[in-house]
Amino acid sequence: MKLTLTLTATLLLAAWFQANSTAEPATVAVRESFAIKTKSLAVTLQVGADGRLYQQPVQAGSSPAVPVRDDEFYPQAGDGYVWEPALEVTHADGNTSTVLVFDSLTQTNETADITATRIRLHDSAYPFYVTLCFKAHLDEDVIEQWIELNHAEKSAVTLQRVESSSLLLGGDVYLTHFFGDWAKEMLSPITEKITPGTKVLDSKLGVRASQFRNPSFILSLGGKGNETNGTVLAGSLAWSGSFQCEFDNYGQGVRALTGINPFASAISLPAGKSFVTPTMLWVWSTNGLGDMSRKFHRWARDFGMRDGHTPRQVLLNNWEATGFDFDFQRIVGLYDPAKEIGTELFLLDDGWFGNKYPRVNDHAALGDWQPNRQRLPNGLAPLASEAVRRGLRFGIWIEPEMVNPKSELFDAHPDWAIRQPKREVELQRHQLVLDLTRPEVQTQEWNMIRSILSVPDISYAKWDCNRYLTQPGSPYLSPARQSELWVDYVNALYALMEKTAKTFPATELMLCSGGGGRADYGALKYFHEFWPSDNTDPTLRVPMQWDYSYFFPVMALASHVTHWGNRPMHFACAVAMSARFGMDLDLTKLSAQDKAICAGAIIAYKQIRDVTQLGDLYRLEDPHENFRGALNFVSPDRRHAVVFAFQLKEGANRPVFPQGLDPAQRYTVRELNPAPGREAIPQEGNSLTGAELMAGGVRPSCANAIEASVIELAPSAVSAADTLHAFGTGSR
Ligand code: DGJ
């Protein structure tokens, strides 16, 4: 308390001094100060004498300053603020200005590690209320932020723009963002200084966050950060629809505005109803990108995804193996070879449904979710129970939100699909999106999900979404409410996902959107993992997984061995086992050697998955910049570690230097699933201390392009057999 008063008095004095000694910019006297704090970040807020809420810019190093008008924390359009506003509202009487003044602050400790803050503001002339909400995770340096808004005006208010966050940053700010496209997701990181003007990363795809741009980014303050140094702030918007992240450099600072894309999305909010924005996630570190992402991963395992403390099983998917060409016998024929090599779960992909219009290719049947009687005469149940009988769990592919015009559902309900009147219908992959704002569609999709996931022995599902919106018209919503489609759709989708997760708590769920279109924390909280890309060429997966790992723990990244790129099986397996290991291969057609490599990789994966998936990740050599990529994982107790080296180009073999080990502990070095014909690594079987390993490195067995080496650092005191026991096989 004493500190607050002293600070307030100092700031008042400084405000008076500055107001009386300089002409501009006009400063604002401070009435009250408080902060949203984590262990090493404090976002300092100030209530001005004018009642408005201001923010001290977040920057590398501290430089407290007296606020000026442009430093408003959540600026509103229409009354003096001339840069990009966080809030733009048309009030019931047509007034396009809003003036928010401070009402109250409540801060509560939800747990020893989480402080919740709610700051209530109201319009000085209207019964219009905005609450700025924060959840600060102290140890992880994560701040979750969102906005709640309601009013008691005479009639509806139009929300033109409501940002989830509008953080003010000072000093030089560098932005790292990730451009991509289908099969190239996250492959092109770009780092640039935010110069005066606005830089916008957005999407207008409606039913998915990304295809080209991603709602996750990194800000480096005071200079470019690297893995071990620099002040960095990761941002990720938890929203699976059109988003906008805008970085407005107005000369005195940079404002990062993040939220639902305001593009064509005005929302009419009746009196008494609330509007809640998606959550913006901020993750802070003054020790570079590695520390930042380890905190992000810890937060994600606890709060951002389902069952974040259960290592994932090995999955076999039939998509790349059979495509649409299968029947009961062919699928059952894949089970024994899968079980033989150690796979734990089988996923039946697209093509199992549709009768009047059978799903024999991607032209028909979406919407008709009855098993195809010719292919599966007795439905899904015998396929699932046969898998379980042979020791595999069984999973199923669904795409609940879509309809093919060639389907019984569309024949019966052409008005259930999203489209624009009087325009030629534009299909993507021969399909349309069902209009989830319509209650009958919500019911139809839920009934379909419930009946499929209720089939006995189905314990996994892949939820796909293979197109985005290009003609955002709802035959259900009234003409005046058409602009609400974007937001209403995503909220209805979340209701469906939430119901699915709650009704089927034991069913594991994979999020997929024609590749990585739904790599966001909005949907992930209902899921266990997501599909990062249809591109499974392991040479591209190395940089892709590297980039995703800034934001997501590897247990969330489905990584399958396929024939994409025709890479050596050993390399493909090493890349896939560094994330959530799966296979998408016809095992009946593999050579004996490749089969043995896969089996060896599965044994190795089971041995280290507790470490890779529950431990800390250290990114060591960036595959975008080097001839190889290298990383290591360390178990939470630092007793067990694993090093991955993925050589992409020719280059001199040299040691990889692991990080994060216990310097005093001894680790036994051994290569897991070594590639046939390669010499043993020089340190094979040696027992070395963490200090020795971190200083001297481990030399991988790979020395040529498209070779990989996976090296376990097991606690020396424990024998190999005990290691398996002590760290678990990760089985469920
Ligand atoms: C797109 C997904 O990304 C693929 O893995 C596969 O499930 C197909 N859809 C099936 O149509």
What does this structure look like?
- The protein has 732 residues and is an alpha+beta fold.
- Among the domains are: 32-304, Beta-galactosidase, Chain A, domain 5, CATH 2.70.98.60; 618-721, Immunoglobulin-like, CATH 2.60.40.1180.
- Helices cover 22% and strands 29% of the residues.
- The protein contains 14 helices and 35 strands.
- The strands form six sheets. Strands 5, 6, 7, 8, 10, 11, 13, 14, 18 and 19 form a ten-stranded antiparallel sheet that branches.
- The chain is globular and about 75 Å long.
- Mean pLDDT is 94; it is low at 1-23 and 718-732.
- Residues 319, 349-350, 397, 464, 466, 512, 514-515, 531, 534 line the site of (2R,3S,4R,5S)-2-(hydroxymethyl)piperidine-3,4,5-triol.
Kindly report the CATH topology of the domain at 32-304: Beta-galactosidase, Chain A, domain 5
End-to-end CA span: 50 Å
What does the largest sheet look like? Answer: 10 strands, antiparallel
Instruction: Name the hetero compounds present.
Output: (2R,3S,4R,5S)-2-(hydroxymethyl)piperidine-3,4,5-triol
**Which structural class do the helices and strands define?**
alpha+beta
Mean pLDDT score: 94
- Continuous helix count: 14
Assign the CATH architecture of the domain at 32-304: Distorted Sandwich
What low-confidence regions span 5 or more consecutive residues with pLDDT below 50?
1-23, 718-732
Tell me what portion of residues adopts beta-strand conformation: 25-35%
Q: Helical content, roughly?
A: 10-25%
